[in-house]
Amino acid sequence: MVQEWIKTSEKVPTSNGEYIITYVYWDPGEFCGTVAVGTAEFDGMHWTIHGRSAYDALIGERYPVIVLMNGRTPAGTKIDVDAWMPMPKPYCREKGR
């Protein structure tokens, strides 16, 4: 089964959990952002982004990075969570191996 990205402008997860996300973080005063893919927890109120890309890119933010539903971190950095998908099922070895 191929998983598809779900745009956050169309739907957010209906249950709390961990998801794969595509997000854009914006440097203050810049007109373009940097796109990244990572994992995040969603609790219905905000995204909590984990992973090295968030840690490296968002210097000055507390880690893990919390993105409120207004698209801002508590420190005011603009981050757009553009799309998400459920985590894949773990790989399962064939029996007998």
Keywords:
97 residues; mainly beta
Unreliable stretches covering 5 or more consecutive residues:
none
**Major sheet: order of its strands?**
1-6-2-3-4-5
Identify the overall geometry. elongated
Number of helices: 1
Overall mean confidence score, pLDDT: 84
Largest sheet data: 6 strands, antiparallel
Range of helix content: under 10%
Overall radius of gyration = 15 Å
Strand pairing plus helix content: what structural class? mainly beta
The tally of strands reads: 6
Order of helices and strands: EEEEHEE
| N-to-C span | 24 Å
Percentage of residues in DSSP E strands: 35-45%
Could you characterize the architecture of this molecule?
By secondary structure, this protein is mostly beta strands. The model has no long low-confidence stretch (mean pLDDT 84). It has one helix spanning 52-57, and strands at 6-7, 17-26, 33-42, 46-50, 65-68, 78-86. The radius of gyration is 15 Å and the shape is elongated. Helix content is 6%, strand content 41%. Strand 2 (17-26) and strand 3 (33-42) form a beta hairpin. Strands 1-6-2-3-4-5 form a 6-stranded antiparallel β-sheet.
